[in-house]
Amino acid sequence: MKLQKIQGAASIAFPRPVFIESAASIAGKKEGEGPLGSEFDMICKDPMFGTATWEAAESTLQKEAALLAIGKAGLKPEEIRMAFAGDLLAQSIASSFGIAEMGIPFYGLFGACSTMGESLSLGAMAVAAGYGEHILCATSSHFASAEKEFRYPLGYGNQRPLSATWTVTGSGACVIGQNPPSFPSKGEAMPLRQGNVCAAITEITTGKIVDYGFRDSLNMGACMAPAACDTIYQHLFDFGRAPSDYDAIVTGDLGVIGQQILLDLLSGKNIDISQVHQDCGLMIFDSNTQDTHSGGSGCGCAATVLCAHLLPKIITGDWKRILFVPTGAMLSKVSFNEGDPVAGIAHAVVIEQAVVS
User: Does residue 58 carry a pLDDT above 70?
Assistant: First the structure.
């Protein structure tokens, strides 16, 4: 018996849904002041999260989001079979230092800002293959740690061009598994089950590295949009679908510039997603009141928006099926300083409303 169905050139359709048992989101002060502020599980106004360094702050942020997701699923860390997690920092230290304390078998990932899509894809394959009843998928980013890693120390006070996005301080974590989530406890905020309705991963499309030769690390939207176009096009081709088959096609963090490039690139392939397209980087901040230029970015951008905003819309019936497409810019401070281009990648995850007994 085959546990999954290979679909087209880059996709998998799971014969049984992989259920999202719980989701948790923790955000920073700036994110809490944005349009989705009331939807996050927790907002921490201290950017240091009680630690001495930006990196330790991000580790704490991710660990707390993971523990919250595990607790909301009614589980203990030792009941999690394995964790897939990553971040933007060198050697993924935010994830390895944070989740390491929990004693969970760990796979460290680097998909840049596409990491939530990568972790959900790998986790869903592991669940579908029977390699774990409960899998943790998590990621994080922190504005200050990312600036330190890739751009300038905050004390330098450099001016940011209008093409730049603002790295989200936040973490999102999901527990996925073979069975539907249990009924929520009374008063639980944003449960992932209402009656017999829950959310499930049904299909994935694995992205390819796409390099258009961009070298501007302060225009991440332009670097990532070609990869988003490639993955969305491949997904629709593999499944023989149209954009109208989805209530929403949600990219991770293309921002204002990247969104327009994506729409133009897909238009060149005779695909119009403008009626259903949304971008997490445009949802998490208010462009009129918050000075974030092109929008939000970072691993935590798509992850927090998914856990706080997108999944509840599926549970409540606003949406029945979405295509979640986090986008990532594949660069390091070494590659950038040596003049290499910034390639992109995007992983697509189909999340649908599931009705269970």
Answer: yes
